[in-house]
Specification:
Elements lengths: L3 H16 L13 H4 L6 E5 L14 E4 L5 E4 L9 E7 L12 E5 L7 E9 L11 E8 L7 E6 L2 E9 L5 E10 L5 E9 L7 E6 L2 E7 L11 E7 L12 E12 L5 H4 L6
Length: about 270
């Protein structure tokens, strides 16, 4: 006869493997990528905001929210399904972290491999993201050392990818890829394939809505730096020191994915790319 303790253990084991594919953020933030791999098509984690667990205090995506308005799950606008994630940052918000500037971001787990795939759908509202001559980040790969060497930024109303690296001297070298004016009031899906490296084998590839925008070969991280941690949301360093042309930033994300080196473009897109 099976003991009651055995029944409990079997139940918990079944619960764990049933829930994980649908709620990959339901674990403690100190876990690593190896703890997260959901066993489906190389995906490490996904977030589509269709449940009630998105970025709570014990989630695997570490929330950096200082105010109640910094993040909420909403039912409009949506990219797919019935919900999306709304990020909001206001001038004068408290600091969410000890270093840097004001932010409403989510920090993902430390990577255990130099090659990764990332994707998300993003929506810039006309009311909430007016033009600012200052810049801000909506996605960054940060090694914990100085400014991020890889980041998707908004600069004077244009969406730009900035890629840098350490040279043999202390300064960094930067390359910019301009994606044009921010597309307002519409969803755009971005896919990033990155071989993180401070050597010649580094690679950054970017697609928007299935169209390739960037192939950048060469170094893209700090010399002897740690593998970066991915972040999405809003980061605006200037607001720590002074006000800019605007005092509000609102942005929406949906269908966020992180996958390992065995992924491909079709896995990361919401529709098949021929």
């Amino acid at each position: 006869m099976i003991s009651s303790i055995t029944y409990i253990c079997l139940f918990l084991l079944n619960f764990h493997f049933t829930i994980l594919p649908f709620n990959s953020f339901s674990f403690h933030a100190k876990l690593t990528e190896k703890d997260l791999l959901i066993g489906q098509d190389s995906l490490i984690l996904t977030e589509n905001f269709e449940n009630d667990f998105s970025w709570k205090k014990n989630s695997i995506g570490y929330p950096q929210f200082a105010e109640d308005h910094a993040f909420e799950v909403v039912d409009s606008p949506v990219f797919s399904g019935k919900r999306s994630g709304k990020f909001e940052l206001r001038y004068g918000d408290k600091m969410a972290t000890k270093n840097g500037g004001p932010r409403a971001e989510v920090l993902f787990p430390k990577q255990d491999h130099f090659e990764r795939w990332y994707s998300f759908a993003v929506f810039f509202p006309s009311i909430g993201w007016e033009r600012d001559r200052d810049d801000e980040l909506i996605s960054q790969w940060h090694s914990g050392k100085g400014t991020p060497t890889l980041a998707l930024r908004v600069i004077s109303g244009n969406l730009k990818l900035r890629i840098g690296y350490d040279s043999q001297i202390p300064s960094s070298q930067w390359s910019y890829y301009d994606f044009g004016n921010i597309p307002k009031d519409q969803w755009n899906e971005f896919v990033f394939h990155v071989v993180h490296s401070y050597g010649k084998d580094g690679l950054v590839e970017v697609w928007r809505n299935g169209e390739k925008l960037v192939t950048h070969n060469g170094p893209n991280m700090y010399l002897e730096g740690d593998l970066p941690r991915w972040k999405i949301g809003i980061y605006k360093s200037t607001w720590r020191k002074r006000k800019t042309d605007v005092d509000l930033r609102v942005i929406y994300f949906d269908n966020i994915k992180l996958a390992n080196q065995n992924a491909d473009l079709n896995l990361m897109m919401s529709r098949e790319v021929l």
